[in-house]
Amino acid sequence: MQDRITAVFEGGGVRGIALAGAAAAALDEGYRFEQTVGTSAGAIVASLVAAGFGPRELREAVTEIDWPGLTGKSSIRKNISMMFRLGFHSGSKLEAILRRLLGSKGVRSFGDLPNGSLMVVATDLNHGRGIVLPNDLPGLGHDPRAFSVARAVLMSSSVPFVFEPVRLTDRVSGEELLMADGAMTARFPAQLVPRNPSSIGFRLRPPPDHHPHHEIKGPVSLATAVIGAGISAREDLPPMCGPLDRVVEVVVDHDSLDFDVSPSLAAELFDIGHASALKQLSHGLPPVVERTGSAPA
């Protein structure tokens, strides 16, 4: 049995399916997650792991999700939604899925989880600041123990323009805040991890010959290209990390915003993450040399 660890899961859109596979591999190797931290797709994986999903359950969860259905609207309806709702797609379907999955483990609010076992990052668009949930909820007048975990994860996963921002009332000031993708604040939130030798970061990398190309013909395609670049551009830079003991990197060749994922493709992405992490964890990993600076936003 390995040490109980703190795990950090990076954001990465649909490619986050592979992170679920990597988490399953860690569980298969005997690691037990005492605390999980995640952003965007990484927040989804972190919440499932914190809720107690095992390796097989993680695989079933990501393969049963109707990924195309999360963004299944006609282009006309997309444009109307953008004008009136500030996003192409509602996040209601994703939130319902998260409620069902987490609810199957008896997890509805943060009070149903061990204290401190889950942290997810979102971005307060009104004030251009990062929000850590549930830690920052008291300052906004909310009781963390009563706050929906699915709602918090949706906030962290709401990629701008792709999904509508999630509205949250600041009960102290009375202001209505718009919460969106935590990757704008910290895509790999390693800086939230205390200096702990039993910590592992799970990251996504593209293949060496991966060169995405977006054909930009109008405002919609431009918005898609901007968000896609925000998700993937930093992958070409040398990785930075916080005080982590080790990092597992999973190479995935799939567009982060391509939700046209069938159950078989989801299983393939999961298995890629599982095989990659299993290979790295079974052979042991050398400690990561800490570098100056925080994790990239």
Overview of the structural elements:
35% of the residues lie in helices and 19% in strands. It is built from nine helices and ten strands. The chain has helices spanning 16-28, 41-51, 55-64, 75-85, 92-103, 149-157, 183-186, 219-232, 263-282; strands at residues 4-9, 32-39, 87-89, 118-124, 129-133, 161-163, 166-169, 176-181, 199-205, 246-251. α3 runs antiparallel to α9. Residues 73-84, 231-241 and 285-297 have low confidence and may be disordered. It is α/β, with parallel strands linked by helices and 297 residues long. The strands form two sheets. Strands 1, 2, 4, 5, 7, 8, 9 and 10 form an eight-stranded mixed sheet that branches. The radius of gyration is 18 Å and the shape is globular.
The biggest beta sheet, please? 8 strands, mixed
Number of strands: 10
**By helix and strand content, what is the structural category?**
alpha/beta
**Global shape:** globular
Low-confidence region ranges: 73-84, 231-241, 285-297
Strand content: 15-25%
Please work out how many helical segments DSSP would assign: 9
Order of helices and strands: EHEHHHEHEEHEEEHEHEH
Distance between the termini: 34 Å
Task: Name the helicity range.
Answer: 25-40%
User: What's the Cα radius of gyration?
Assistant: 18 Å
Mean pLDDT: 81
